[in-house]
Amino acid sequence: MTQTSPFSLHDAIEWVDAQARGADTLVRLEAASLLVEELAEVGDAVLGYFVDQARHDGHSWTEIGDALGVSKQAAQQRHTLRASLGPSAATFAHLTPRARNVIEAAKEIARSWGHEDVGTEHLLLALYREPRSIGAQVLVGSGLSEERAESGIAERVARGARPRKGDVTFSSRVNAVFSGALSSAHSMHHNYIGTEHLLLGLADGEGVAGEVLREAGLSRESLSRDIERRLAEYTTPGPKTKPPGKRATTKAPTSKTRAPARRPRPR
To answer: Can you give 121-188 as a three-state secondary structure string?
Structure first.
C-alpha cells in the first residue's frame, strides 16, 4: 500500500511563505501554527469518515483499533466523543487544554472509584482538578466546594470494590453533556469548548452531577451569568479588542467548515 501524503512538507512551507510573504519569522511561525491547527481538524474529520465507513461495513471496534494502532476502547471513545461534538462543528481539537485535562481526569476518577463508565459525577469532580479554569472558579465561587460536591455524589453513587485499571467508556449521559457543551459554545458565539461549557452541559443534563448542582442551588441560569461575568474579565473595552497574545486570523484553505466568531480562551 502506497503511503504518500497528498500534502507534503514542501507544500506546507510554500503555503506559509505565501501567506506571510516578506514578514519576519515570528509572523510566519504564527501562520504555520494556524495551518497545523487547521490540518489537525481535517485529519480528525478524515479519520472519523473512515471509521464510519468501517463500522458500516461491519468491522468491530477491535479491528478498527488495530487499524488505528490503538486499543479497542481508545478507538471507541475517540469516535464517540467526536460523534457527540459533531464532525462539522467544533471537534475534539476545539477543546481547550484545560477542558481536555478535565476529560482525562474524569477517566482517572472513574477508575479510582472502581467504575467502568465515566459518569457525570466524575466529570463534575474532574472540573476541580483544574482550579484556575472558569468551570472550577464558578463552582467554588458559588459555594460548591470539591468536598461538598464529592459528599453529594457519595450519597448517590457507591464506590466499586476496588479501583479499576485500563480504559473506561463514556456513559450516554456524559455524551449528552458533550453535546450540551457544544450547544452552549455555539450559543455564546465561541469557537472553542472550555470548562465553562462542560459545566453548563452538566447543569443542562440528567444525571448525578445535575442533581448535586441543583441541590446546591446552582441553576443553569445562575451559572451562565457567573460565567459571562468572568469571561468579560478576559476582554478589555473596545469595539474590536484583540486579546493579548491572540494570533492572526489567517486560515488555511483546507477546511470547508467555519467556526463561530472567536472569543478569548481563558488561560
So the answer is: HHHHHHHCCCCCCHHHHHHHHCCCCHHHHHHHHHCCCCCCCCCCCCCCEECHHHHHHHHHHHHHHHHC
In a domain, 8, yes or no: no
Higher pLDDT, 78 or 11: 11
Amino acid residing at 244:
P
Residue 54 has pLDDT above 90, yes or no: no
Integer CA distances (angstroms), 213 to 125, 144, 182, in order: 12, 8, 20
pLDDT cut 70: percent of the chain above it: 74
For β-strands 169-170 and 117-118, DSSP reports them as parallel
- Cell reading at 245: 497574545
Q: Between the ranges 74-83, 111-120, 258-267, where is the mean pLDDT highest?
A: 111-120
Residue 25, domain member (yes or no): yes
Identify the pLDDT of residue 42: 63
Q: What is the residue range of 26's domain?
A: 21-70
The answer as to whether 82 is a domain residue is no
Do 99 and 206 fall into the same domain?
A: yes
> What is the reported pLDDT for 185?
86
Q: Does residue 138 share a domain with residue 179?
A: yes
Q: 223-232: buried (b, 16+ CB within 10 Å) or exposed (e) per residue?
A: bbebbeebbe
Query: For residue 206, is it within any domain?
Result: yes
Q: Are residues 98 and 222 in the same domain?
A: yes
**207-262 per-position pLDDT tens digit:** 999 999 999 999 999 999 999 998 887 654 444 434 434 444 444 444 333 344 44
Location of C-alpha cell 452552549: 184
Give the CATH number of the domain where residue 111 resides. Answer: 1.10.1780.10
Residue 213 and residue 137 share a domain: yes
Mean pLDDT of the chain: 79
